[in-house]
């Protein structure tokens, strides 16, 4: 099984169009220690021929053009693509807007929770993915299904938040089960498997039990500290308000992912969906050193993992 | 006034993710005579400080990152952008999807026809452009309004078609006035002006009269021949079905833009919104020679015009 990180950043990417934070300003100026990053998507294949996209970021056209394996195979017909399926983990813009770049007759199966498919159906702009070309399949929770390319996926609910554009005024902003899911992707031939959870508000007992002993987890690396965007003058929101656990934090409501994973025995753990404000993006920073000491890797665009 | 072509291609860009046509295959392979092109957007400024985007293509983040003038000015605050306004000429995905990349607190004024604003309002995903940051203004037709940055725009209806995702089963697919507009952008200080019409089904008498003697027109260059996508095995649709006049064609219903402009006395005419199937994209092709003989230029990404 081949896993390619198409985009390792959270919404906005690095640099973000309107952001002057230290990371964005430095990467824009080409200073060393930081690399540009596009927004959150992966590509996975069991057979190296048919590919499953995990989330479709707004940068998906640029990401496909940068990935040789995702080009139409020469001689495969005038309109063709090795992209056979797309699976979504939530309805956030940084995970669904790229669907609008998979129009123009590209044929694929779209997997998402019932809640996310309802959100797409309520937005007529996604009609450019016509039912002639795109089959929309509601992902059952806690059930493994075959998705082509020699792969199977199992979706499960994780603590999270409904997409920003669907928030209401209620407690929890109207979040319901299925708004945020994790995916276990497995190779149906070799049995190799990994978990992909780019948006997650907390590692609760159920998630901890599920991930225990896993070979590989790609996990929500949005923020290093819960209040980092407020502290940098970028936003009024904490990570918790956005539905994202932080990397750091050791106790109480703010236990972070490093602490939560410390006893899970996960063989390889990689942060994805990393916000431009996050100091771990900077090589040599104390925060980068801290996550590496805790056994984590920082995903980068073009990163390839074989399982 | 400075006009920058951020993206010169029609929907899908060059190469298009799932396209194996000769142009897409050759540009993907890096063969000479063709350059990659992102999708249809311009940036315009009167003062070089505040910028107006004309259409927001799905590639807008990549385009902004490639355009030094559109980066947040250093020292201008943590969240800042020289992009002060965006004007849309229709509701097509290749012109509106990029709005989803102008979220994250970017403040601007969004100008579009009442019809297009209604389409956006009916799609909750565009709620990520909150009214706290983005003011939506319905463009009156045939009335000049100031839009900041020393610029004014005047919108006018042109023959066209409603966006694909809004088509209905009626004759004309439900197209109504305002679904497709042209824009005259003028410098309020110097009086310099140009027309931008990236989607247009025909040059009727009213449009011909309006463009007569213009200094610069950037015009719909989607297809060279009306049936080119069918002939290449790419689509079942003619240019007319998609709401696009062709470049070639000299008589009857299929009079093309070269012929239609021949007697208009437009000083400088440039094709934009060029589909990947169009043979004029290939340097040295007979079609490229024909449009150049007719006095047309082919826009390219990064092209800059000063008026």
Kindly describe this structure.
Two copies of one chain form a homodimer. Chain A is α/β, with parallel strands linked by helices. Chain A has one domain: Ribonuclease Z/Hydroxyacylglutathione hydrolase-like (Metallo-beta-lactamase, Chain A). Chain A has a seven-stranded mixed sheet with strand order 6-5-4-3-2-1-14. The longest helix of chain A is centred in the middle third of the chain and has 8 residues. Chain A starts with a strand and ends with a strand. The model of chain A has no long low-confidence stretch (mean pLDDT 95).
Task: Explain the layout of strands and helices.
Two copies of one chain form a homodimer.
Chain A: E1 2-7, H1 22-28, E2 41-45, E3 51-54, H2 60-65, E4 83-87, H3 93-96, E5 108-112, H4 114-121, E6 134-138, E7 144-148, E8 151-157, E9 181-187, E10 193-197, H5 205-211, E11 216-220, H6 228-231, H7 239-242, H8 257-261, E12 268-272, H9 286-293, E13 296-298, E14 304-306
Parallel strand pairs in A: 3-4, 4-5, 5-6, 10-11, 11-12, 12-13
Antiparallel strand pairs in A: 1-2, 1-14, 2-3, 7-8, 8-9, 9-10
